[in-house]
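debug: dumping io for the single-chain case to check the tokenizer round-trip. Nothing else runs in this session.
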Amino acid sequence: MNRKGFTLIEVISVIVIIGILMIIAIPIVSEYILGSRRSTYAANVSAYVETINASYEMKDYGKLINEYEIMIVPMRIVELEVGDNKESPFGEYDFTKSYAVITFENHKYQIYINAVDVTGKGIVEKPANEVSKENIEDGVADMILPWANYTSASRSYPFKNKTYTICETRHRGTDGIYSSTNEVNTSYDPVLILCED
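debug: decoded output
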């Protein structure tokens, strides 16, 4: 007898096989996509770090710091050469919580990065050479911005087992170079110099 179709058993067998393949494939594809997003996040943050480093070395943020100072550079003021990349692969960066801390340790400059997006994913106080997809953490949205709501220079900022206080505020001039001001006005995305207490 010549049949033109599938039996119910054949159709169910195909559906079961497809279901098993999907159960295996979906987690693998999801993990691959997440890994790719984390790699892109790390690459974006590395681009910010490289730009901050170049600007610091060219003294775009004003004079260099000494071993008793740290410099806070908000990511919002950093202009990337590759374009205006204001979003991580997970969502927009939260620029109120994303900044670089430049220190002078062991006779060399070191950049630590804090990069947080609106989904709460981020890199927190990692040295620039440790920016990688493995160091992207979840749930870091509660970071405190060190210069938020400062009305005076009396507020302190703990960093690497030391305490610092704002001692200088630098604002961008019309020439694009940051210069020192005596006011602690933080409404214009200043570069802050904090001195060790």
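debug: round-trip ok. The helical segments are 8-57.
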